[in-house]
Amino acid sequence: MKENNIRGGDAPIKVELEANKNYSWCSCGHGDQPFCNGTHRKEKATTPLTFQVEEAKEAWLCTCKLTKNPPYCDGSHNA
Ligand code: FES
């Protein structure tokens, strides 16, 4: 866990992602999960990860911030 980051949750959140849309996944754990709401600035924590998907899909996004495959849950929340 990077300095000033916290676990934002203990389980992933299921989301419906739209194709070719910019998403900002919260990497610091402080704001509403799983997307950035700007709280990292106040907390001096890490900035969000911006990502897109090529096709619309359902995805499980990490909230614990321990994933090795951000923004997606890789099961690390159980470690
Ligand atoms: S919620 Fe972070 S790895 Fe599953």
From TrEMBL:
Domain of life: Bacteria
Gene Ontology molecular functions: 2 iron, 2 sulfur cluster binding; metal ion binding
Key word Metal-binding present: yes
Pfam families associated with the record: zf-CDGSH
Ranges for domain Iron-binding zinc finger CDGSH type: 10-46, 47-79
InterPro entries: CISD, FeS-contain_CDGSH-typ, MitoNEET_CISD
GO CC entries: cytoplasm
Gene3D superfamilies: CDGSH iron-sulfur domain, mitoNEET-type
Entry keywords, A to Z: 2Fe-2S, Iron, Iron-sulfur, Metal-binding
Protein name: CDGSH iron-sulfur domain-containing protein
Species assigned in the record: Spongiivirga citrea
